UniProtKB/TrEMBL annotation:
This is DUF2480 family protein. Pfam families: DUF2480. InterPro entries: DUF2480. It comes from Robiginitalea marina.
Length: 168
């Protein structure tokens, strides 16, 4: 007599948090300030301001922009601020730092807004695989947020999750 195969995962109360679903959609840009520096090293204020005025800021419309400088130049804080003033009307978010730092900030903001009530007193698995660049810190932050409400938290896939936390 054959025994019926039962999918216990499908019948469980386990919830999955897929960080890829929180991924902020929109084009990413990296703006390198060295393009506006003399020989990539010296900021001349008048020329810098003129170059920024002539720049087409519309290309960043509704995008996420990371400002950085690839050269060893010492760039004053006001230069980043001035570029930010041009980007404010067009970009969704502007950060100073690498593209990775921008992704980290974007995920942190999404996780801070995440409604945790559906996860209250439930076992939760944080999905481990994603096609989008989910920063490692987002996994840590999601665990820390869920520890306040979830009965247990695991990482991976429902069929082979690694236990991380269980309320005592």
């Amino acid at each position: 007599m054959k025994e019926e195969i039962v999918n216990r995962v499908a019948g469980s109360k386990l919830l999955t948090l897929d960080l890829e679903e929180l991924y902020p959609r929109g084009q990413r840009f990296r703006v390198d300030l060295s393009q506006w520096l003399e020989e990539g090293l010296i900021l001349r204020e008048k020329e810098f301001r003129n170059a920024l005025k002539a720049h087409d800021w519309e290309i960043y419309r509704d995008g996420f922009v990371a400002l950085s400088c690839s050269s060893d130049a010492i760039v004053p804080a006001w230069a980043y601020m001035l570029i930010g003033s041009y980007l404010k009307p067009v970009a969704r978010k502007v950060v100073v730092g690498s593209s990775e730092a921008m992704e980290t900030l974007l995920f942190n903001e999404c996780l801070e807004k995440l409604d945790l009530e559906p996860y209250r007193d439930r076992p939760v698995v944080i999905k481990g695989c994603s096609k989008l660049p989910v920063p490692l810190s987002a996994y840590l932050w999601s665990l820390q947020r869920l520890q306040d409400v979830a009965r247990s938290v695991m990482f991976g896939e429902a069929c082979s999750a690694v236990p991380l936390f269980k309320k005592s």
